[in-house]
C-alpha cells in the first residue's frame, strides 16, 4: 500500500477516514479491509456528521467503485499500517534491549 495516498487527502477527507476507523468497529464494520457498502458508508456518515450523505469524493469517484453499491477506500487500511509502524518499531527496540541484557 502506498502511504502517499492518505497524506494526499484533504483534511476533510482524512477526517472521514478517521471517522470510519473510529465509528466502524462499533457499527460492526471490518476496518481491516478496503470494501465498504453504501449502507455502511451511510451509517458512518450518520454517526460522524449526523446525516446519511456519503461524501462526494467517495460516491462520485468512479475509481472508488468496486461493484454495485461497493466503494473502495484503501486509505482505511493504509492508516492502520501507519499507526502500527511505531508500535512495531518500539517492540523491536524492546526485544533488542532484552536480548542484549539476557
**Strands of the largest sheet, in order across it?**
1-3-2
Query: What is the mean pLDDT?
Result: 84
**How many strands, which pairing sense, and closed or not: the largest β-sheet?**
3 strands, antiparallel
Q: How much of the polypeptide forms β-strand, as a percent range?
A: 5-15%
Order of helices and strands: HHEHHEEH
Output the number of helix runs: 5
Rg, Cα atoms, Å: 17 Å
Shape: elongated
| Fraction of residues in helix | 55-70%
- Number of beta-strand segments: 3
Uncertain stretches: none
Structural class: mainly alpha
Distance between the termini: 37 Å
Q: What is the domain tally?
A: 1
What do you see in this structure?
This protein has a three-stranded antiparallel beta sheet with strand order 1-3-2. It has 102 residues and is mainly alpha-helical. It has five helices and three strands; from the N terminus they run ααβααββα. The protein has one domain (4-101). α2 crosses α3 (38-49) and α2 crosses α5. The chain has helices at 4-7, 11-23, 38-49, 56-59, 75-101; strands at residues 35-37, 65-67, 70-72. β2 (65-67) and β3 form a beta hairpin. The longest helix has 27 residues, at 75-101.
Amino acid at each position: 500500500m502506498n502511504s502517499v495516498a492518505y497524506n494526499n487527502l484533504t483534511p476533510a477527507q482524512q477526517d472521514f477516514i478517521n471517522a470510519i476507523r473510529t465509528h466502524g468497529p462499533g457499527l460492526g464494520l471490518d476496518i481491516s479491509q478496503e470494501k465498504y457498502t453504501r449502507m455502511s458508508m451511510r451509517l458512518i456518515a450518520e454517526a460522524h456528521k449526523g446525516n446519511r450523505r456519503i461524501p462526494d469524493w467517495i460516491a462520485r469517484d468512479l475509481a472508488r467503485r468496486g461493484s454495485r453499491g461497493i466503494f473502495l477506500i484503501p486509505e482505511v487500511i493504509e492508516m492502520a499500517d501507519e499507526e502500527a509502524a511505531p508500535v512495531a518499531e518500539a517492540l523491536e527496540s524492546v526485544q533488542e534491549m532484552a536480548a542484549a541484557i539476557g
